[in-house]
Amino acid sequence: MVEAVGTFGLAIAGAGRWLITGIRVAREQTNSGDRSKTEEKPMRSKLSVASLLIAGVTFIAPLTAVAGEAHVAQIKDFIARNVESWLSDPVVINAIKQQNAKTSELSQADIERLDRDWRAQATAFDKPLVDEMLARELSKFLMAKKNQSRGLITEMFVMDAKGLNVGQSDVTSDYWQGDEAKWQKTYGTGPGQVFVDRAEKDESTEARQSQASITISDPATGEPLGAITVGIDLDLL
Questions:
Q1: I want to staple 193 with a disulfide (CB 3.0 to 4.6 A). Which of 5, 117, 133, 215 is the partner?
Q2: DSSP letter assigned to residue 146
């Protein structure tokens, strides 16, 4: 990751110097030459600058893609080596199946009401819905896995077939994830899906983090049951 970011940074810096030099030359061309062509030269200069900018964007865009691919590839490799093996654990599978049986008949209005209740309780002193979630066996299982990662995993939460939380290592800001890409691009797409979100910097810790979400399927049938989201500290990866 460090090598990829370093190469990307040097390439961007070089592209920036190249663009600045080209723009400077174009301006000098505008200010010199025959005064009788004062209307023609500025137009040529503008076209030159525009061409340089287009070329610069064309040059930089692939580099951005390469950096993004490196970030995604490293996280997918981490998930494959450290997470996927325990997604079929009975603690995970049974918890999702049991909740799916309870929530299968919920209407969208019911889901949104639960989500509002959760949001109101998330930062409150009295929070029975949150306390019950954190006391679940699955939540304790996720907490233990997070602790074993020694800071590399920042959070984890499992979602059911509706996108509702089933268990979590830390309190999430909302209860329903069904309107977000972490659920839509995993369970909502099918089995075997891994979605890696963009990297972001935590303003309080300055740490660079990303989230990987994975479809969780029934090991016996291959049927998608839900999904899990894993927060990862990129500086420790």
A1: 215
A2: H
